[in-house]
Amino acid sequence: MRIHCLKKQQIKLRWLFLLILMGSNYLPSAAQTVELSIRETLQRVEQQLPLLESYRQQAAATKENGAIVRNSLVPDLNIGYQANIATFNNITGMNYPGFLLPISGPPSLGNDWNFIPGSAAGALLKWNPITFGQRQAALEKASAQFKLANANYNEQLFHQQYLAIQHYLEAIYLQKTLRIARAVVDRLKLNLSYSLVLTQTGLKAGIDSAQFQAAILQAEIEELQTEKNYLEKLTELSRLTGLETTISSLVLTDTIPGISLQALEPVEHQQHPLFKALQSQKAITAAGLKEQKKAWLPQLDIWGNLYARGSGVDATGVVDKGAGWQFSRTNAGVGLQLSFSILQFSKINIRKKQFEFLLKSDEARLSQAQLDISKQTEQAMMHYQKNVAIAAKTPKQLRIANEVYEGLKISYEAGLIDYTRLYQAQYELIRAELSNANAQMQVWSSLLSIAIAKGNLSLFLDSLN
User: Fold this and answer.
1) Where are the domains positioned within the chain?
2) How many CB atoms lie under 10 A from the CB of residue 305?
3) Cβ atoms within 10 Å, residue 335
4) Residue 230 contacts residue 174 (beta carbons within 8 Å)
């Protein structure tokens, strides 16, 4: 009779779970489902993350530095027109400062405050076709700045993409942990139903039912905590990928499959995004040093001037104010100007010394980065090998724990053991389930760590099914 009641309870519970499952499949969804794989995640990070767009625009802006330097080969030409009235005493009139080169005349014979009109128009050209290597040094520096901007973008892209993969893996692990937590609640509820039947038949005291109820509450709390952590990972993942959809509609399509140990290539630190960024910084410092070495060279300017004047008074003192608005005199000239900063050697030598120190600093940072990449890869490889060995043992541990639990569950249903032994067996089963899920996730995390250490995410992506 007791076994018959127990079977009826089991059948009712199974039908209840089946109805709940079927009902959940037909519930209307609040938002359209968005599926996301790891590869799609990386693509969305690259295309949608505003931070990376900022780095792209910075690189595009830095590229224009070279165009600015090359544009200095174009002559500087200023043209303009002036008109004014001024005192008679400067009989050729006056000019305002700017692009017009003033032409001075003799002073007047007396002090005459009569205001005389004057006008002028001119064109002033300045050209630096020869810079003794200074323009080339500036071009090399601009090119190095552009390479650094690209290297910074690639490093930031690499950083954001591996962060996205980490969150994806952690979300998958929490998703699996959440399923385990829900299974724990279901098992406890099923055990509670057994306990109630056994209590009714007098085979067990009511304390077992109370203990199962307390265990169910604790399991439900842990399930809610796991679900919260899982939703937090989805939220961060949606931020990195620029997804505006609600996290409840986000579906992760990749899982955590098993993996076998594979041979990995030696470390190539020269290809690491961080190492490339440091190399680019060193190139800028070297270009800055070269620029300083060229700074002491002379500057050669080619000047040209075309100048027309009108004055309301001529050289004999005759006033004709109407003539002040007309151009009566024209002058033109062209010439070379070679300038040399004689007393700037000390300042230039100090700056050269400063850049030499900075260059040595950059070289030391490169050496440290090479050492860090090598040791980080070595450590990641060690973790990967040990995690693969652990992941090979956890499925067997899980199988044994499940067999023990199923056996003790039958014994409890028959009233042969108490609550404590069944609960301990379920605890060991939960540990085995979590250990198995964690071992698989740790294998992929350590493989990701190798890819991060080597600066090549393809090592991880190529292992995906």
Assistant:
1) 2-68+134-286+348-461, 76-127+299-339
2) 17
3) 9
4) yes
Instruction: Return the residue matching tokens 């499952």.
Output: 21
| Cβ-based neighbour number of residue 237 at 10 Å | 25
The helix (H) or strand (E) run that includes residue 310 is: strand 299-311
The model's pLDDT over 329-355, given as tens digits with 9 standing for 90+, comes to 787 888 888 887 777 778 888 889 999
**pTM for the complete prediction?**
0.74
For residues 296 and 345, the answer to whether their CB atoms sit within 8 Å is: yes
CATH superfamily of 2-68+134-286+348-461: Outer membrane efflux proteins (OEP) (1.20.1600.10)
d(CA 171, CA 232): 9
CA separation for the pair 155, 452 (Å, rounded): 11
| Residue-wise pLDDT tens digits, 295-333 | 888 888 888 878 788 877 777 777 888 878 888 778 788
- Which residue type is seen at 197? V
Q: At a CB cut-off of 8 Å and minimum separation 6, what does 128 contact?
A: 72, 73, 135, 299, 300, 301, 302
In angstroms, the Cα distances linking 12 to 4, 17, 18, 198, 204 are 13, 9, 10, 17, 21
Closest listed residue to residue 279, CA positions, set 369, 185, 366, 193: 366
Amino acid present at 294: K
